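Note to self: keep these together.
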Amino acid sequence: MPKSLWRDRNEQLDPETDYVEIVQNLSLYEFTWDITQSLSFALFRTYAVPSIGRLLFETGQFTEACQKRYDDTTLLLEAPFVHGFDSEQGRTAMRRINQMHKMYDISNDDLRYVLSTFVVVPKRWLDDYGWRSLTETELRATVNYYRTLGRHMNIKDVPDTYDGFLHLVDDYEREHFAYDEGGRRVADATLDLMCTFYPRPVRRPVEVFSRALMDEPLLRAFRYDAPHPSITRLSRAAMRARARLLRHTPSNRKPTFTADLPRIKSYPNGYALADLGTFPGERATSPGCPVPHRT
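Structure:
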């Protein structure tokens, strides 16, 4: 199949009405690994905001139940774009997310920032490391998808353009990124978890490789040591080489779902969306709400 298969198919769709299908094509077929990685990095960035990282540390949700929280977050957020917002699965996932939000006093600004990272970080990742960038149609569809997600989550004042999301992320990080011991502990736990997705002998190189892909403000906020410049150059060159190779491979015919990935380990016998996350009265070390929030 031609490598332009999904790009050409997306260009035939209307990003104002077919945005769920376009996001499906991007996430399940065209850029499965890239989008999964970039969304993981998007959530990782949010821990550098002290009101987010500290709260997650205090609840123990990522330091004591990191794998399950990661799994629940990913599975709940995947349901709307796999099945649609109006499907039974999509409604169940959104209802579960909103039920958990009601358990807390959530800052709309923090929620809006987290949502915005889902738009901006994958776009930047694909520009830097993808075998191609998003088209204008695909970018507009992504904006519309996350605007709809924000509406279902009752987030106010969500931007209506990519530039709006971009400026929100950059301004929020410039104002709020700062070191916090709790945020650092959550970042460490998450980075450790990401390394377990790979064979044990390469986990240390994967950790260094991950830091090599982090930008300076993020490294500074966590007080992470930057890898040697030669390692950073080599790591980023390896990602660009991967992108060049992928340009010559055929388009995927078979979708890849989150539940099929080996990194999802909490539900070997299956799961029900309505049972994911936390409920009132449960221990604070359970996985919790998939969107960080403050006390």
